[in-house]
Design goal:
It is built from 19 helices and 10 strands. The protein is an alpha/beta fold and 454 residues long. The chain has 2 domains: 186 residues, Periplasmic binding protein-like II (D-Maltodextrin-Binding Protein, domain 2, 3-Layer(aba) Sandwich), CATH 3.40.190; 208 residues, D-Maltodextrin-Binding Protein, domain 2. A hairpin with a 5-residue loop joins strand 1 and strand 2.
Length: 454
């Protein structure tokens, strides 16, 4: 080997040994960071990606983008990946079936697809009782100290009636019967306080070609019937109905409720049933704005939902609690609230719990409030103005709050209290199903679910 070749070979060998010595088994910096065991998705900057799936409701989607930005600013180690859709169940269900779960889900019970109920029945929702004792993210006080009382004492948050919380309350709204205050002033009518007064008003309105009642879809009967059950028998009676007590749906109190709903059929606008579906429900709501119907069950979000809709002259939104069954009787306004929860299969449960505490922070509440979404926290009503201030005063004006839902059971094939109790309302209203048969089917469903209580 000549000297030139020898020098080249020596330099090449030296270079190889130097490169090996420099690497020393360490990452060069271009290697993707390793997940150290929390199972979450990592970015190159070692941040955890928190997947938040939220229903786009009447409050809109923009508030969730602001919440994501706000939480990322408060926690620099987290990136929030949002899925916000009006058809959220259709979007996330296939991924969940494939084993890919969001870390946090904002999706209430009581929806037609019943995804939340399905997860509850399958024990697929993480227990979050400990979240109540955690500090609100970025603040000093605990979640339980800031939250309005009563919201975590219902089957809507404690579905197994075991004293443990699985769903966090979000965006609460008084519900009731919404109407146009302007037409009552114009006609000189008195807003009814009892069902007897309702029927009298219905007769008077019919003479002017106005129906007494309409409803967006049958799903809105959950709060209407709930308030009526409270008014008929009080909180203990309602609780018995929600836990499938034997014979409860055949009682005189329940019969009074069913017969009242049946009588409403005689005063319901004739187009209601045809439009009571997800595509046309706003046509039924428009009946109120056009003075073609007087009352409909709804929540405070309806004012925003119909903000751009045409309306009668001097139209003014108003809301009243459900009428009492007797003069001076209790009147209730069901408190509807959405729920936030963590799937049991979520990968980032600890950060998900921190995110949920943040939902009750002053910063998050102010973002939600801009979209008219009201969090169940102390002092929130002091920040309301305009139409919302009027709506949320209903409890200060004598209405009693009602809250709750059906207790969770193990799956019973072919049986759903929601479908049986509310889903058949269209048939009752159209006269295809008698009140007696409707009532009997509900008691039958209750009998089947009672042994399956979790």
């Amino acid at each position: 080997m000549n000297m030139k070749k020898w020098l080249i070979t020596s330099l090449f060998i030296f270079f190889l040994f130097s490169l090996a010595a420099c690497s020393g088994g360490e990452s060069t910096g271009s290697e993707a960071p390793k997940d150290e065991g929390n199972g979450g998705e990592k970015t190159p900057a070692e941040k955890t990606t928190l997947h938040v799936a939220a229903l786009e409701s009447a409050y809109g989607a923009e508030m969730w983008s602001k919440i994501a930005e706000s939480f990322e600013a408060a926690n620099e180690n987290v990136i929030v990946k949002l899925t916000v859709e009006k058809n959220l169940e259709e979007v996330i269900r296939p991924n969940m079936q494939a084993g890919e779960y969001p870390d946090v889900v904002l999706l209430a019970t009581g929806r037609e697809e019943a995804l939340t109920e399905t997860l509850i029945k399958e024990n697929g929702v993480e227990k979050i009782t400990d979240v109540l004792g955690m500090k609100v993210y970025g603040e000093d006080g605990a979640v339980s100290e800031k939250m309005l009382s009563g919201f975590t004492d219902t089957l809507a948050t404690n579905p197994y009636a075991d004293g443990e919380t699985y769903l966090g309350p979000m965006f609460y709204s008084p519900t009731g019967l919404f109407y146009n205050a302007g037409i009552f002033e114009e006609k000189g009518w008195t807003v009814p306080e009892t069902w007897d007064e309702m029927w009298e008003l219905g007769e008077a309105a019919a003479k002017d070609g106005i129906s007494l009642f309409t409803y967006p879809t049958t799903g809105y009967f959950d709060t209407l019937v709930g308030s009526m059950l409270y008014a008929a028998g009080g909180p203990d009676f309602y609780q018995a109905a929600m836990t499938y007590e034997d014979g409860i749906w055949e009682s005189k109190e329940a019969t009074q409720v069913f017969e009242t709903v049946g009588k409403l059929a005689d005063y319901t606008h004739p187009n209601t049933v045809a439009n009571a579906n997800p595509n046309d429900f706003t046509k039924n709501q428009q009946l109120i704005l056009d003075n073609k119907a007087l009352f409909m069950p709804n929540g405070t979000w309806v004012a925003g939902e119909m903000a751009e809709a045409p309306r009668a002259e001097n139209f003014e939104w108003a809301m009243m609690p459900v009428p009492a069954f007797e003069k001076g009787g209790d009147r209730y306004a069901f408190t509807f609230f959405e729920q936030i929860w963590i799937p049991s299969e979520a990968k980032n449960k600890d950060i998900a719990k921190e995110f949920i505490t943040y939902m009750y922070s002053d910063k998050a509440a102010s973002i939600f409030l801009e979209a008219n979404a009201v969090q169940p926290i102390e002092g929130i009503t002091d920040q309301l103005d305009g139409q919302n201030e009027v709506f949320y005063q209903i409890y200060e004006e004598g209405a009693l709050p009602a809250m709750g839902t059906f207790a969770s059971t193990k799956p019973v094939p072919g049986v759903s209290m929601g479908d049986t109790l509310y889903g058949q309302v269209d048939s009752v209203m159209s006269g295809k199903l008698s009140v007696d048969k409707w009532q009997a089917s509900i008691e039958e469903a209750s009998d089947k679910l009672r042994p399956a209580l979790n």
